Amino acid sequence: MSDVAEGWIESNQRQLVAALARVRRALEQRSRQPGDGLAGSAADPASSSDLEPEPTDPPSALSRLCATFGFSPFERDVLVLCAGMELDASFGSLCASAQGDPSRSYPTFSLALAALEGAHWSALTPAAPLRRWRLIDAAGDQPLTQRPLRIDERILHFLAGVQHLDERLCGLVEPASAPEDDLVPSHQAIAEELIQAWSHPLGGTARTPIQLHGEDTAAKRAVAAHACKALGWNLNILQAAAVPLPPAELDALLRLLVRESALTGGALLIDCDETDGSDPSRAASMSWLVERLSLPLVITTRHRLRNLQRAALCLEVRKPTAAEQRLLWKRLLSAELARDNADLDALGSQFSLSTPSIRAACAEAFGRYHMTQRPPPPADQRPQPGAAPGLGALLWEACRKQARPRLDDLAQRIDPLVGWNDLVLPDAQLEILREIATHVRSRSKVYESWGFLSRGARGLGISALFGGPSGTGKTMAAEVLAHELHLDLYRIDLSQVVSKYIGETEKNLSRVFDAAEEGGAVLLFDEADALFGRRTEVKDSHDRYANIEVSFLLQRMEAYRGLAILTTNMKSALDTAFMRRIRFIVQFPFPDVAQRAQIWRGVFPAQTPTEDLDPTRLARLAVAGGNIRNIALNAAFLAADAGQPVRMTHLLKAARSEYAKLEKPLNEVETQGWS
How far apart are CA 165 and CA 170, in angstroms? Predict the structure, then answer.
């Protein structure tokens, strides 16, 4: 503890002892002159003036309370009287003696009005500071002046010089973490706007509420924390989901929040990131609370709130820019990797992470790297997917993990385990797929270094449409691309996205795209014709909103910084305007006999025991690759159960089951010579 802090504690204790002595003398004088009167029989002012504490710098806790809540001298002494009951054992007997009743060994308003200087009835009202801010408790069934008075525990500790969060706010409010490092320039500029707004209150008193909106929760909190630190304030955080709905509880919370801010000299951040405003009752409670909070207030949201009646300064907080992220990577990475600009370009172009996420990725990668005790990679070699786990590869994997949590809650992650050799397609289609991979890998150079981004971000999203019959390899091709690019692949469940309620589909898709932006994941919209269908002629309000959904999706696809893949069995069902904005279109044909034979040659893993299988005969089955895999898997189960290697007889039985599922006849020409 510093000498300054120790000096203040001693000074504060002297001030409190002096205040208690003054009130004690008033009680002693009242004990000697009992009476039934209220005001008018208090101690002689001259008798207690010698106990008036001298002001100190910084002011004592009692002086701060008086200034903060605007106490009159009488209200101050009522509070000290109640504090005396907790701090001085003699106050109980003094109260009983002053009231002429041994059973009333506690303070009352009646006693205060009779014994203390400057007594006034208005101090007893619910609107006066003592009761409005719950500084004392006057609950009970007795008449107001006869009820026992008790100081609030939080206020008692504050008078003693001990700061702590009110226990009634524990679980609802948490102190913000102290900011450790400097903000990136774009965030520092926003923090300066907060400081400017709070330093010049509207009308000289009211501070403008600040609404920080954007996807980066950590950045919004860091901006608010840095602004508060610059102003010498504390910052507490309240989750919007914890705001009570009953009016009485809401009013009690309001008073506690304002009081806590006054006691600690702090601001409040209400975190609305996880609430979407779909609950009208909670939205109404939030609005009521925000309208009445007379303290420095920050509201954080993912999307700007538009239903607030109180004027607020709205600022968007984005993730650090690509240049700022690269500078942060350079500052955090070891000298061996930082000198390789290719590594930084690869990380910076693929991942859009917050500052804490970048730090966490570096910490994880460094920890794993030092555990393996591997030498650093050559300076001219960028980390490649599947390469030995040098520091660059470990960083890439750590960044993928940092980007996953939000998207894992919204879509199904598919671990890509197949490569180019597993994909059986004509050369033309394979060439387009390799071109897609090239665009994703080189987008940083083309967009940023070569200046295409300066012409505008519209149309720079990399999108692909995979069309063709079911089972022709569309999903597998998406896996191959994700495996080649060393990226996560997420399949979007359209049943969880499309909603019959107006506006919900856009909201759901917005969550998916926003979450995917961090890691530039590969998004796979299976059977997308159900979602991206033709826009219809407007005949009613539902048609109009359906068209708005399509337009919204077109915009998000064009702006998405990763790769978005759409698959469809009916290419003709897609909107023509949407087709024009797709960068790559790959038509997956039904495999011919040669391609089916190639699929059969690679369908069984090397560990699977087989005997006398003939891919040429198997290729007579006119089925797609997905059906071939089903037949092979079913045959493997049949062989395993019989304790035999997979033979043509097992495949024949499995083929019959698959054809029955497809409601197709299996003729003898296709299976001739199998048994």
Answer: 7
